Every structure is written in C-alpha cells, then in structure tokens.
Amino acid sequence: MTAPARAADASTLRRKHKNGCMTAAAGARRGAWLLLPWLLVIGVAAAEVINQLVYGSVLRTGALLSPAPALAAIRGGPRDVAAVSAGAVGAGLLVTFYGDGEGLAYQSTVLSAVVVVSFASVFGALRRQWREKRLSRVQRVAETAQLALLPPVPRRLGPLRLEARYVAADAEARVGGDFYRAVGCRHGLRLLIGDVRGKGLPAIHTASVVLGVFREAALEEPRLADVAWRCAQTVERLQRTDPSGAAASTQEATELFVTAALVEIDGPRVRVISLGHPPPLLLTPNRPVLLETEEPLPPLGLAQISRGEALARSWDWRPGDRLLLYTDGIGEARDAQGAFFPLEQAALPLRGVPFGDLCDLVLEAVRRHTGRRLTDDAALLAVEWERTPPQVP
C-alpha cells in the first residue's frame, strides 16, 4: 500500500472512531433521559403501595405521574413515549385502586391528567422526529454543497503533504463563507484561503466563483500578483451583479468583500500576498513565525487593485517545516473574558505532532479556549515539507 493510501485509511479510521464515540455518547444521553420517567413511574407506584400496606393510607402522589410522558418525549421516540405513557396510566390505576375512599373525583383527575399529557407527549415526539428527519435531509444537502465547494485537497504533491479542515459555527447550516483551494502548477504549489463576508447562498456563490477564477489563474498566470489581481477583478464584477445576474443594489455592492491570503510554494521559497486576511503561520523546529506582509492590501472588493500592485513577500523554509493557513474563525476566536486565541503559543507544542493530526489539534485547542463552542466558521489548510520524500515502489 502506498503512503497516500495509508494516510487516507488512517484519516478514515479517525473519522469513524470520532463518529462512533459521538454516537455512543448520544445513545448514553438518550438512555439516561428514558430511564428517568420510568424511575418516576415505578417510584410513585411503589411509594403508594408500600405506604398503603404499612400505614393503611395513601400519599396522594398520583399527580406526579403526569410529568413522566413529557420527560420521555424530550429524547425518546413515539414508541418510547407510548410505552412510558402506558406505564404511567397503569401506575395511575394502581394508585387509585389502593385509594382509601377518595372517590371518583380523585381517580378521574389523576387518570385524566396522565392520559392528556400522554397524548400530548406522543404528538410532540412525532413532531420532533419529523423535524429531526427534515433537518437531517437539509444537512445532507448542505454537506453535498460543501463537498462541491470545497473538494478534498490533494494529499501529496511531490515532497509536500497537505491537510484541510472546515468547521461551521452553525451546526445546522454546515456551510458558510470560508473557502480554500490548493493547485499544483508549473510554478510550484499555489494556495488560497479566504472568507466571504456574510453567510448563506450569496456567500457560497461568491466563494465558488472566486475559487474557480483562482484555479484558472493559478495555472495560467506567471506571477502570484497576477493571480491576486484576477481574483480582485472577479469580486468587483460580483459587486455589480447579484447571484441571479441582475444588477446589484448599492448596499449589496458595498457589503460584498472577501478577505484572502494567497501563497506560492516554489522549492525553498514561500511567497505570500495578504488581502485583509490573517497571516499564515510557519511552524519551524525552533519557533512559529507569522508570515506578515509589510503593507497588507485591503480585502477584495473594498478597494481597486491594479495589476502588479499586490507584491508578494518571500520567506525561506526547509524540509520538516509546516505552513498553516487559517481563517478568522481561528485567529479571532475569543474566550469568556474576550481574549483572542493565542495561535502562536498554542502552536508551540504542535510542531512535532503527526501531520495528519495537526488541524484537528488546532481546532480542539480553539474549542478549549472558547468553551467548546465556535462562534464563527473556521477553515484550516496545512502544508508540510517532508524531510525524506517517500520512496516510489
């Protein structure tokens, strides 16, 4: 088996293990929620029977049976709720049977309350199940759109290895305005990462158009500055039209802009053009280095860029170094006190981790910093120059 195939298999195993753990945790939470109403039903019935046998009186706890079906409806399906409801009705009959002359009014009140809540809970469980299925279909469509917008990056280009991750802050949407692309060409490896202002279909449309133009320009243009100019021209055209092709309003034109970072890797040289985007992070054996340009340009769409104006700044890198491109969902993530995520500090212990785990560990560090919740979409694109290129069998 080749090295890329082994890497792909390892990534697949990691995803399956993560999904399995999430499924097991969800099953455990669901089981706990279903156990609670049964404990309530059994506890009420046992308390009434024991009190009647020992003391010859009733505790009048039948009203506590009413919440049982509602508790089951929080996580259980219609069948689970129906089973708990039947148990609650049975316990209600038992409680009223052991009554000491409370009469028909007490019995009918207890049973009526249980029956009414049971019907409402079963109906609520059916509605929740229908919404979950509908949401699942929407998420599958969104994931398909994301796959079309952000196809997997090539795992390897010569001595270079690549990994990418995308995480949407809105778990129900799954797709936002962050994007990335890696293109191998005669000039080396050219990378683009960016973030469209806004979300939804307009952001997806803008990202898809910019990615298409970048791929074409990366293969055709001799300089990275010319690639940046082509992308800028594209965003300016998009400002004049909406996704349907009609002329855009003045407000829509002023609100549309794209932050982006373009990177070209040509042997030992790394060239960067920043267009209002967080600078890439170079992980060396000694220390992490932010590749900040001296005069970063404004985001695409906020100012006109003339051809050749977007000059690239160059850095050296060596075998064993890693390059991390990211969106502001990483660089601007805040904790409860409002402090930004310290990317350089967090990257110190990650310089020697397996390359396939680098992006996942960065995202995990961001979640710890923000309290397990991302407030903005996050995209990561990592490149490693292997010390020893793999042997071709």
Radius of gyration: 29 Å
How far is the N terminus from the C terminus? 10 Å
Strand content: 15-25%
As residue ranges, the low-confidence spans are 1-22
Order of helices and strands: HHHHEEEEHHHEEEEEEHHHE
Q: Major beta sheet, specifics?
A: 6 strands, antiparallel
Strand order of the largest sheet: 1-2-11-10-7-8
Total beta strands: 11
What percent of residues adopt helix (DSSP H or I)?
40-55%
Give the rounded overall mean pLDDT.
81
What does this 3D model show about the protein?
A hairpin with a 2-residue loop joins β5 (258-266) and β6. The chain is of the alpha+beta class and 393 residues long. It is 49% helix and 17% strand. The strands form two sheets. It has a six-stranded antiparallel sheet with strand order 1-2-11-10-7-8. It contains ten helices and eleven strands.
